[in-house]
Amino acid sequence: MPEIAFYHLTRATVEQTLPTLLERSRARGWRAIVQAMSETRLQRLDADLWSYRPESFLPHGTKADGAPEAQPIYLTCENDNPNDADVRFFVEGAHIAPALAGSGAPRERAALVFDGRDDAELADARAQWKELRDLGYSLVYHQQSESGGWEEKAREPKA
Q: Where on the tree of life does the source sit, at the highest rank (predicted)?
């Protein structure tokens, strides 16, 4: 059962934060999926990942690119796991539990990345935390600090 991390953004946007999280995942040798709710958001993330930093490259693709099993980072709106991902990032309020219940579950970790300045995303994150806790998943909550780093604020079950 993968650990589930919640990344509460307070200073940066998802588009600014996600590339760093993906770079760290790739440095571990992990394959990743990024799941959003809308094709519009996926297109924006796709463009951002190609251009976020000129000296860096995050190999990724979408359904439109074909061969999802060959993509180290796969962007989708579906609950599938065609690239056998180790980590799965959920953005835009994408619901974690359905992906974990089926064949979409990642091997190591799932992470909800949400903008804490958006009331709807914050309420959704709280509801998902409660749902996943009640389902028995191990959860960890990280909040962005003033310096932009991460501070662990909560863990379930409590040690």
A: Bacteria
CB burial class (10 A; 0-12, 13-18, 19+) of residue 74?
A: buried
Q: What SS3 class is residue 35? A: strand
Which residues, including other chains, have CB under 8 Å from residue 114's CB and lie 6 or more apart?
6, 7, 8, 9, 14, 91, 93, 121, 122, 124, 125
The residue assigned the tokens 């790739």 is: 26
How many Cβ atoms sit within 10 Å of the Cβ of residue 135? Answer: 13
Per-residue pLDDT of 49-95, as tens digits, reads 988 888 877 999 999 999 999 999 999 999 999 999 999 999 999 99
pTM: 0.95
Q: How far is CA 115 from CA 14, 65, 107, 138, in A?
A: 7, 28, 25, 22
pLDDT tens by residue, 85-118: 999 999 999 999 999 998 899 999 999 999 999 9
Altogether, the residues listed in the chain come to a count of: 159
Nearest CA among 126, 123, 146, 143 for reference residue 134: 126
